[in-house]
Each structure stands twice: as structure tokens, then as C-alpha cells.
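Researcher: Predict the fold of Phosphodiesterase.
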Amino acid sequence: MTADELLLEIKSAFERRGGETYGEGVNQTDHALQAGWLAEQAGAPRALIVASLLHDIGHLIHELPQDIAEQGIDTEHESLGSAWLSRHFGPDVTEPVRLHVEAKRYLCVAEPGYFDRLSEASVLSLRLQGGPHKPEEAAAFAAEPYAEQAVKLRHWDEEAKVLGMKTPDFAHFAPLIRASLRAG
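Model: C-alpha cells for Phosphodiesterase follow.
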């Protein structure tokens, strides 16, 4: 698949399901653009900006209903998204995506006050995703090679829920996506 074909596939996924909300007030497209923009504004490396932009791609490529969490089902979007992205990107993009849910679970015990700042939808999904880490889970997460990047992504994820926030569009991020593609 060429870079142009991949960009078209990503764009199509956002056109198909990006208008859906998931209890946060903003839709998937706005959330993605905000997360990517926050990462860029923080001076994150290119791959982490792309990971932030595409961290919830798993929500856009499954066929489950929009309200699936309210039905008590975890879509495991982080694993689905990471696997999908791994066809085109290396671990510097895919691992923070794979770990961003574990980062939420970790931060609930590692960062005082983090849990209290979670939205209602994030608390619901946290329950479905296993709840806050137990000490041994937190230690295992902290030892992951991309844990630090996943924690940064998770913070941008939480901040990327602002109605009406002005961000660049996907065209702005296209060069970063192209430059982050795995060679070959």
C-alpha cells in the first residue's frame, strides 16, 4: 500500500465513523485532531504526534455500535488499532497506541488526582478495561519500553475533549504520517 492509499484509508475511516461521539461531547475526528495538535504543541517527536492523532483508530475500524461501552462491552480498541497501524508503522507509533489504555489504568494509581479528573465516559470505560492497576500491573506497565510515551499520549487524550477547540485539519498532519511510515 502506498502512502497515498494509506492516507485515503485513514481519511475514509474518519469520514465513515469520525462524526460519532462516545460520551465525551466531542466526536472522534475532533478528539483525534485535538490529541495530535496537543502533542505537536508540546514538541513531541513526529511518531508520538502521529500516535496521538491515530490513538483511537480502533474505534473507527470495528463494526460495533457507537454505544457499545454502555452495553458493558470493551472493544479493546487499543489492541485493534495498534495491530491495524502495525501494518504501516513501527513501534514508535504503534506501542503508545497499544499502551494508552494501560496508561490510564496506571495513572489512576501513580498520579494523585488523576482518577478524579476522568470524564464519566472514561470512568465507564476504565471499569470495562480492568479498573486501576494493581501494584504488580503498575510495575509491569512502568517497565514497558514505551510506557513514558503512552503516559504522555494519555494526558493529551484526556485534554482532547474540548468543544470548539481550533485545530489544524488532517492535511496538516499528512506529512508527519508519511514521514512516520515504516520503510519498505
